[in-house]
Design goal:
9-stranded antiparallel beta sheet; alpha+beta; globular
Length: 497
Amino acid sequence: MTATERAAHGTGHQDLHAFLDAYRAAHPDDVLTVDEKLEGEDVAALVAELAARGRAELLVCTQVSGLDGTPLVTNLFASRTRVARLLGSDPAGLHRAYQRAAARRTEPRLVPTGPVLDTVAEGPDVDLTTLPLLKHFDSDRGPYITSGVITAEAPPAAPNTPAAPNTPAAPNAPNAPNAPNTPNTPGRSGNLSYHRALVHNRTELATSLHSRGHLWQLLRLAEQRGEPLPVAMVIGAHPLFQLAASARVGPDVDERTLAGGLLGAPLDVVRTPRHGIRVPACAELVLEGVIDPARTAPEGPFGEFSGYSSDRSTNNVLTVHSVLRRRDAVLLDIVGGNSAEHLNLARIPRESEMAEQLTSRFPEVTALHYPTSGTHFHAYVALRQARPGQARQIMLALLGWDPYVKTVVAVDEDVDITRDEDVLWALATHLQPGADVFTVDGLPGSPLDPSSTPDGTTSRMGLDATRAPHFDAVRIRTDPARVARARELLDRGPACG
C-alpha cells in the first residue's frame, strides 16, 4: 500500500513508520541509529548501558542477526518525556494528559484495506520459524515475541442471554465473531493484552496468559462452549495503540476504543481473513489463529519485570492460521526484564489511573510516581498533609487499589518523588520506624513477585516520611541565581574560561 493510498484511507497518522519519520525529524537527538551488526543479546545490553548512563534514546538497529534484514525499533517507551510527547504533554502533565485522552473512548473504524494486508500467508504457507525474532537474555528459553498484543473479540452470548449491540462481520469473514445473530455476552467486550510468546513449531506459539486477566476469562468462556478462542497477535503498531493495550480497564471496555481516545480519532481496523478479528490497519505483523483451552506447551524461563527469569506460565498454545505482514515491516521490540521501557508501558497507565483516583478522593495529594527501581512494587506519593493520619489513610488507599504495589512511601510536596535519592533523604530525616511504619498481611499480590507466598499472597507496607506536625528543622536553601551561575560555568566546559 503506497503512501498516497494510506492518505486516501486516512490511516497515515496511525502508522508506526510515519511516527518514526516525524519523530526523527522533530527530535533527532532522541533517536539513536546503530548500523553495525548485532546479536539480539547485544540489543538488550545496549539498552541497559544507555540506562546506566542516564540515557533513553529511541533505538533503531538496522542489522540484527536472525531478523533477515528487518529493521529493529526498540526502547520507544523508555523515556517518559517521549511518552508525554505522544500525548502532547510534558512529563509533569503526563497523568492528566493520559486520563483526558483515555476518557475520549471511540469505537474502531472498519476500513477496506491497510498496509498489514500487503502480504497474507495462510494454511500450509504459514511458517513461524521464519519470523523476525530475537533473544534478549542468556537466561531466556529462546527468541521471544515481546511486543505481541493478543486481540480477541467479545464472546457470543449463551442461549437465553439478553443480546448486546453487535458489529457486522466483514464480507470476507463470514464466520467472524459478532456476526449478525451472534450477540455479545453482556458485560464482556473485546480485549487487548500483552503476552510473551515463543515459537513452538511451524504453526504454533507457546504463550503465557495472565490467569487474572480478561483474556484468560474469555478463554474460560470458550472452554465452557467446548470451543477454542479465536485471537490475533499484533506485533508492532502505532505507539499509542501499544500504550492502550497495557491499560487496566474492566471486562466491559474494549481497549481498541481506548486507542481511539489516545489517537484522537477512531482506530482504523481491518478484519483478519479467517476469524474476522479487528486489528490495526497499519500494524506491522499479525498472527491470526486460536488458543485451545485444552492444549499446553513448555514456555519460559523469560526475563520478567522483576529482574528475575520467570517460569511461572500458563503454558498456552496459540495455533496460527494466517500471517499478515506489511511489505516494509519493522520489528517493534520491547526489551524485557526490568528495563525502563518494559516498566513504563505498564506503569504509566496504572499511575495515571491511581493518580486520578487519589486526587479525586484526597485533594491533598500533589504527585504520584512508580519508580523504575521498584519494578511495579513501590510507589511514592507526595502530599500537602492537612491533619494527622492523612498520609497513612492515603497509603492504605493506594495499597488497596493497586494489587501490584507492596510498599508506599509518603513524603511532603517539596520532595521530588521522581528522584530515588530525594525520597531516601526524606526517609532518613523524617521517618521514625516505631511510629511511621505499618504493614498489612495476606493480600493478593503479583504472581511474578519472586517473594510472594505459594498461594500468591503478599504483605504490604506503608512508610510515612512526611514531616511530623511539630517538626521544626529548617531545610537549607541555595539561591536559584547561584544555581544558575554554577550551571553556566559548568556548561562552558572543563576550563570554565
